[in-house]
Structure to design on (698 residues):
DNA sequence: TTGTACGCGTTATCAA
DNA sequence: TTGATAACGCGTACAA
């Protein structure tokens, strides 16, 4: 007895083929390469598709072809403007090539990365994109077993799987420290949010404070819990002023924190940069516009997304088997603005 | 001649079955309901899965079951904090239920919505989420033909497909206008970004300016091109001051624009709220913290995402066939802060 | 150029 | 409870 399923009265390729009076394989061929079928049947197929409102079943296609036009992307958080900019750029580029972006966010929770990667793998993705290059053993195993190129973004270091596009956060921290030393910083603090789980913010902090230490300056580090936000920055400044009233320079792990510092300083009548120098990280849309404009590190978030997408598309569409791992330093730029102005001798005690 | 393909040396369910010395059906059953197999073979299957590192192929599963655990989401832009907050909330909730979020952004380009929906449909998604309730004919046709619940978010109006979670932007605009009238606004302007394509910003503008008109006040509308940003706001304020030097109150379609207005006012020594009142929309993280704190409309972005996800999961998991369309007014709240303070008579000319 | 037949890795059905 | 087997809808090698 025949077991009829086919509950889904979906329009299939066979339906199109029947209506166009050709075989299903001709329809399949037409869909992938319209010029490959004879000019006589092409219009018939085209019309049948339109009349029936045929939508190809990607699932079946992917299963047959053993490859899915989907790319899994793991970011820590979408609330973070850095990552949403990168994701937006990637999505746009993937879309151009007909690839679908699968999105997952860890919210900095340990173990979530492995879960998300596992989920993505069950979709047989064409490629995987993860954030950072530090992963737990489970994630590493999963990524290694993936028969798809793996891109790591926003950070350099460790051994790359296939592609790594990012920059050294440690150096970014160093660059800010160097600048602050040049302008005569003496009493220095660093504000970072959740630096135990945000390893990149922690790296920037390390780069900054070690550089300072080499110059004989001990940095007061304020590691606040929760998301980076202006409120975080404002509270942190209040704390710092309590413990270190003569602070003259503050670096922040994120521009939104720095913005909060600027607001709090303004409320307290603390002049920036005359009495307090402030630097951030991210070069967010407000950083150029705020008062005073904020010295910061520009990480090229969009460029990272674009590079990854392009490089992956290239690898996927021209599968020169066994490609070498590739590392791309997307770099960063220290953008010096009015919030860090030279500390005049006259203003020092 | 047998055609051996099976180039993909992927670990399949059969491999697991062979190793556990059971049938593939039992493995499948175990995966969906571990308690349904006898306690004798369950551990064998479990071990085989772990040893072989088996990852189920969702594609095959979805094809067979004729349902995919994927939900397509279309937003205008990820750069917009509103939508990224909503998407983040949805993704988290979907993930909890084992559903994958497919993401697409239109970047406010006409026609992109239909393209994205079409792409999603070919994935046979469990549900679709789109932004707003105004869609071109092509999109409407596609959505109607979808055998999946369709949720529209961030806006109310039109006839809902299945679910609509949002609020009236027109009323949000009215609420701001009402407040500004109460505090004695006389010379009024509205700044919006790209209001031809951002229909919701346009609605807020309409609600605002019509309310003002009813009170006999003609609103100067500044519709700037490009994304909403602080720079946009700063430039717009400069423009407004040129054409309308005695402006006393400005409403903005977005808090980031309002932030730019505050910065520009500060640079010009224009005291807010004493000389100029400013209101925004969005209640972004900085809005409470900036100087002065910003009066704004809070749209409950996270709540919208959560409501949609929960409602969809419910519909999907308890398919009481032919559910009624449902409209949920997520509401908004006018948050009055220092940036809009009563205009004292003594300060008027 | 077009058609035939098989296989992709699962789920669902039904018999044992 | 377990296992054999037929779909699911399409890609593709190969024959016509």
């Amino acid at each position: 007895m025949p077991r009829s399923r086919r509950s889904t009265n979906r329009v299939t390729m066979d339906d199109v083929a029947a209506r166009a009076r050709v075989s299903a394989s001709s329809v399949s061929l037409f869909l992938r390469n319209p010029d490959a079928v004879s000019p006589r049947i092409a219009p018939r197929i085209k019309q049948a598709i339109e009349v029936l409102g045929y939508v190809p079943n990607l699932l079946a296609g992917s299963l047959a072809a053993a490859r899915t036009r989907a790319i899994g992307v793991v970011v820590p958080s979408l609330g973070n403007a850095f990552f949403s900019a990168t994701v937006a750029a990637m999505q746009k580029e993937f879309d151009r090539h007909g690839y679908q972006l699968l999105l997952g966010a860890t919210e900095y929770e340990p173990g979530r990365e492995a879960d998300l990667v596992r989920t993505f793998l069950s979709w047989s993705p064409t490629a995987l994109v993860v954030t950072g290059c530090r992963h737990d053993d489970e994630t590493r195993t999963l990524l290694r077993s993936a028969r798809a190129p793996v891109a790591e973004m926003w950070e350099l270091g460790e051994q790359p799987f296939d592609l790594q596009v990012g920059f050294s956060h440690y150096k970014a921290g160093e660059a800010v420290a160097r600048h602050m030393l040049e302008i005569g910083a003496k009493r220095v603090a660093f504000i970072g949010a959740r630096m135990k789980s945000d390893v990149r913010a922690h790296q920037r902090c390390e780069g900054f404070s070690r550089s300072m230490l080499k110059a004989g300056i001990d940095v007061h580090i304020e590691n606040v819990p929760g998301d980076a936000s202006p409120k975080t920055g404002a509270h942190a400044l209040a704390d710092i002023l309590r413990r270190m009233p003569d602070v003259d320079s503050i670096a922040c792990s994120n521009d939104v924190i720095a913005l909060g510092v600027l607001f709090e300083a303004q409320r307290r009548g603390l002049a920036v940069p005359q009495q307090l120098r402030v630097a951030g990280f991210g070069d967010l849309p407000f950083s150029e516009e705020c008062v005073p404009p904020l010295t910061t590190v520009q990480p090229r978030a969009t460029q990272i997304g674009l590079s990854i997408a392009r490089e992956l598309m290239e690898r996927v569409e021209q599968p020169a088997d066994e490609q070498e791992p590739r590392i791309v330093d997307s770099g960063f730029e220290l953008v010096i603005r009015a919030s860090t102005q030279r500390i005049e001798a006259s203003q020092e005690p």
Observations:
- Residues 59 and 314 of chain A are 23 Å apart (CA to CA).
- Chain A touches chain B through 58 residues (CB under 8 Å).
- Chain A has twelve helices and twelve strands.
